[in-house]
Amino acid sequence: MAGNFSFDQLKKAVSSGEIDTVLACIVDLQGRLAGKRFLAQYFVDSAHDETHGCNYLLAADIDMEPVPGYKAASWSKGYGDFVMKPDLATLRRIPWLEKTALVICDVLDHHTHDDLPHSPRAILKKQIKRLTERGYIGYFASELEFYLFNETYDSARKKHWQGLDTASPYIGDYQIGITTKEEGVMRRLRNEMEAAGIPIENSKGEWGPGQEEINVRYAEALDMADRHVILKNGAKEIAESEGKAISFMSKYNYGLAGNSSHIHNSLWSADGKTPLFFDKKAEWTLSTLGQQWAAGQLKYAKEFTWFLAPYINSYKRFQAGTFAPTKIMWSEDNRTAGFRLCGEGTKGIRMECRIGGADLNPYLAFAALIAAGLAGIDEKLELQKPFVGDAYQASRLPEIPKTLRDATETLAKSKMLKQALGEDVLEHYVHTAKWEQFEYDRRITDWELHRGFERY
Fold first, then answer.
1. Is 4 exposed, middle or buried, given 0-12, 13-18 or 19+ CB atoms closer than 10 A?
2. GS catalytic domain: from which residue to which, for each copy (predicted)?
């Protein structure tokens, strides 16, 4: 948990007039920042200890519609408050907003002041505690892909999200020349995130016109999740200030590559000095612990897919020949498989889960991967041999769930997740998934109108 700004530094900056606004933010079910803008002096005086928010924020859909049927919050319970407890270790300056600092808050029960079990940050913290109890640190890194448009969100809305002008007219994957045209946003993104305490290793063009990938330096799981959500929020704000728009939608256009969020993960010793997955004498140089961890993620991948692909649109990304996986299998270095071993033969050896889209909530995704990995260790699972070849064409490999409906069914039946997360927590997110499906099922899409208005 590392920001770049101590509370003492904040107090001095407020006194001198360098900072006049503090954003106190929780993370909602969708992985977005939600919270309050404080006049900085009020935050320093009292709100740094705690503030409050309506508990419907963790019982609402992406449209901010209060969703009926949750146990944790409802109209019948009056939609009361929860506590927003600033984690001052996450305090940081926000360079792209004038005189502004930001802090991530934990969500606590209003009466007991315990972590609210179904809040995304609490879910991840619970799984990190399980690692800590065993003497492990989980290091994670989530790559993020997105499309950059020569549009504002207003102009894109007026076009009904069709025929949008991408920042580059053709695919510029790794191409320096074409991505130079996008540097107005990307250079700011790299430098200003670094100044906000989010170390950016690099950015590059991806496999779509105007598509970008940005890579954040790996970190302990909670710190990485915090970085991830601030990066997504900040990227949109920076782009908008440049008259551009960004989309992290998993598949915004049927004919173009989707946006992924590949997640690299490994275990290290409690002091962070010894890589527990590296064994130069082991097969693939992957230790027994690492093999069991990977085997657990493979075994339970279908059960936790929803945590990597939470929307109807998420499943449109899983198409053969698009660098998005369709099969649950691991490989040594093969981008057609759902899991890939990276850094073989080095201390940086790790598993890369390629299933997740850029629309995932990182706290939930990391928590699910930890839970599955620990299950693999506890069950002493044996890692199967790596796949070689084109996984898209391998008919006998287990498939990633093809639809949200399929993923919701496997999520609801998961005994492993029920035990790891808690029954009420799992039920909360199963209900979230079912609501997303219900909302989609009753809507009329543009595709239906185009296909059937005249022809039926």
1. middle
2. 120-456
- Look up the pTM and report it: 0.97
The closest of 147, 365, 159, 339 to 245, measured between CA atoms, is 147
Distance CA 453, CA 291 (A): 54
Q: Which residue has the tokens 């992406």?
A: 62
**Cα distance between residue 208 and residue 168, in whole Å:** 9
Each residue's pLDDT tens digit, 96-145:
999 999 999 999 999 999 999 999 999 999 999 999 999 999 999 999 99
pLDDT mean over 223-250: 97
Angle of helix 362-378 versus helix 221-241 axis, rounded to 10: 160
Q: For residues 216 and 148, what is the distance between their CA atoms, to the nearest angstrom?
A: 18
3-state secondary structure of 357: strand
Contact residues for 16 (Cβ-Cβ < 8 A; gap 6+): none
pLDDT of 334 reads: 85
Answer for the pair 141, 263: CB distance below 8 angstroms, yes or no.
yes
Mean pLDDT computed over every residue of the chain: 95
Quote the percentage of the chain above a pLDDT of 90.
90
The DSSP-derived string for 260-302 is B--EEEEEEETTS-SBTTB-TTSGGGB-HHHHHHHHHHHHTHH
Q: What is the pLDDT of residue 420?
A: 98
User: Can you tell me the distance from the alpha carbon of 316 to that of 293, in angstroms, rounded to the nearest whole number?
Assistant: 28
Residue found under tokens 């230790």: 287
- pLDDT at position 3 over 80: no
Residue that is written with structure tokens 């990307």 in the block:
186
pLDDT attached to residue 4: 84
CB half-sphere exposure, 294, CA atoms < 13 A = 32
Contact 312, 433 (CB under 8 A): no
